[in-house]
Amino acid sequence: MNMTLSITSRKQIYFPQVLLKALNLPSPGKVVIDVLPDSSVKFRPVKSFLEFAGIAKDKAKFEYWKTFRDKMETEYEEVY
User: For a Cys staple, 46 with which of 9, 30, 50, 59, CB 3.0–4.6 Å?
Assistant: First the structure.
């Protein structure tokens, strides 16, 4: 599969649905991009800790962790 993607002025890339499916990437979601020694890239989906919410039987606990995650994503900058 060969595709050309554009980068917007805001440094964003639009991934067509067919590409997301081919790479098995979540939408919406997050991915890790690995730059390999040969200058190619590898995309890996990042699992949300909310996927583990089934462990908690109490819905209030689930809502607490969802609110916590939303707060972390909006108030703190990612550092790599």
Answer: 30
Q: Are 29 and 46 in contact (CB under 8 A)?
A: yes
**Structural domain for 69, as ranges:** 48-80
Q: Judge if pTM exceeds 0.85.
A: no
> Does any domain span residue 6?
no
- Which pLDDT does position 62 carry in this prediction? 72
Asked whether the beta carbons of 41 and 34 are under 8 A apart, the reply is yes
Residues 57 and 29 placed together within one structural domain of the fold = no
Is 60 contained in some domain? yes
